[in-house]
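BUG: 3D viewer hangs when loading the predicted structure for this chain

Environment: internal workstation, default settings.
Expected: structure renders.
Actual: progress bar stalls at 90%.

Input used:
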Amino acid sequence: MKAKILSAIILVMLLCSSACAALPSVMILMKKNSSECERMLPVLKQIQQDYGVRISASYKYLEDDLKLAGKYNVRYVPMLIFMDSNGKERAREVGYRSLEQILAVFEKNGIKI
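Structure tokens produced before the viewer hung:
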């Protein structure tokens, strides 16, 4: 019985990781105490609520991982990095963007939502 439950759990984990990995994504690189960055949080929450099964949306504070600024050559924040379902970067935007503007970037770059 325990073996069947364990097998079922492993199967669900594999399916979930495969499904999540296949999503296009937007990652927002932010700085703490930046009003422009903080304005992005409600938009991010809306993406997660309305498009969570079709878009992976996340944010990272640069202060928490200093290597990110160098890795992504961040000069201004917030920086939005758009990736396709293969994890390939397709676009970058800097500054506040509304939900509609974010969806338009995906569309403009041929990423189906």
